[in-house]
Amino acid sequence: MKKMDQEVIWSEVLDEDFRSIPKGLAESFSDKTLLVTGATGLVGSLLLKYLLYVRETGGLNVELVAVARNREKARSIFGGFYGDIEWVFADLASDEIDYPGPVDFIVHGAAVTTSKTMVERPVGVIDLSIRGTRAMLELAREKGAMLLYLSSMEVYGTMPDGGRTAERSLGYIDLSNVRSCYPESKRLCENLCVAYGAEFRVDARVARLAQTFGAGVLPGENRAVVAFSRAASRGECVCLKTKGLSDANYVYASDAVSALLTILLRGKEGEAYNVANEACHMTIAEMAQLAIDTVGTPDAKLVFDVDESNASGFAADAKLFLSSEKLRALGWGPRVDLPTAMTRLVAYLEESAHE
Question: Residue limits of the NAD-dependent epimerase/dehydratase domain (predicted)?
Fold first, then answer.
């Protein structure tokens, strides 16, 4: 990543992605302060990087505050731009957040996202979700800020087959499955947002993100679509630990960033919005094969290594086709399809490996 006296700020691929986001979205944040939690996660870091990009290239006057736990990880992710952000280091599962400055917008994305942790430390997952969201809602209440809560498509649980799923539809979540700590706590956090709106007039909105990936993924990122694309591009086996029958819904990273900005600027108080590219819907197995067909070398192949005894470590098989009609009605539209997303992801990974 490089400063503005050179042509490239983050990377050629990521800069191209950022140029594709309508500038008018970011310009609406001029002279405002935006606070982001989960700032060292994929979505939080990309939102901050995009606003830094617009600030450097377009002179956007926006103040950025980031909440994270790990100072060294933050330095590694933001490099030369680390000092251009005001940092608050805290563990939202336990620490009090006392930020003295003004805040106009809060994007709350701090959450556990690894299935292994959900199974091994479910209480910690719930603590971070509930306590962290309550703390950010209290901060929004204190500052008179708008809050956007980053939820997940997993809140839908297991849906009946057939049709596209809009925001008012919810399915079944097995409360006896320990991994349900994640989707069930996400559901409660969404309702907390509604409760704070009803009781304290906090303007809170919800973005239910599909699986998000693309240029800007962090080192060590191992979510399925990234791992499969990486393996295929290296000519390795693409290994599925399940039968891959679950439906998968995706959205490219820069499309997700533009969606969040759209919800902040044009969404309605108390409403939830699916963030998904409806053209990027297929089963996990189909996605794995697409990775091989799109970015794989001749040696890449698909392998199934299913351990039925470890099924609790994965999300339950689900048939879910997210509808983005409500978000598209706000003027948002995805720009990157799945084959292009995989190609750009691999290009970014290769570019990053040579830095």
Answer: 35-276
Q: What is the DSSP letter of 45?
A: H
Asked which of 99-108, 125-134, 146-155, 308-317 is least confident by mean pLDDT, the reply is: 308-317
CATH number for 92: 3.40.50.720
Q: Which residues are bridge partners to 273 per DSSP?
A: 207
Picking from 256, 246, 287, the residue whose alpha carbon sits closest to that of residue 50 is 256
Q: Please tell me the predicted confidence (pLDDT) of residue 322.
A: 96
- Name the pTM for this structure: 0.93
Residue range 86-105, pLDDT digits in tens: 999 999 998 888 899 999 99
- Residue 169 CA: distances (Å) to CA of 195, 198, 320: 19, 21, 11
How many structural domains compose the chain? 1
Query: Domain range holding 27?
Result: 12-214+250-278+321-336
In a domain, 311, yes or no: no
Q: What is the DSSP letter of 172?
A: B
Contact 2, 9 (CB under 8 A): yes
Assess if residue 184 is contained within a domain: yes
User: For the residues of 77-108, what is the DSSP string, one character each?
Assistant: HHGGGGGGSEEEE--TTT------S--SEEEE
CA distance 303 to 26: 43
Residue 42 lies in a domain: yes
CA dihedral 250→29→74→226, nearest 10 degrees, is 10
Q: Do the Cβ atoms of 88 and 67 come closer than 8 Å? A: yes
Q: How far is Cα 9 from Cα 316, in angstroms, rounded to an integer?
A: 40
Whether the predicted pLDDT of 161 surpasses 80: no
Intra-chain end-to-end CA distance of the chain, in Å? 9
CB crowding 212-230: b at 16 or more within 10 Å, else e: bbbbbbeeeeeebbbbbbb
Q: Does 24 map to a domain?
A: yes
Q: What are phi and psi of 108, to 5 degrees?
A: -100, 105
- Token output for 134: 């309550």
> Given the DSSP bridges, would you call strands 247-252 and 281-283 parallel, antiparallel or unpaired?
antiparallel
Contact call for residues 32 and 105 (beta carbons, < 8 A)? yes
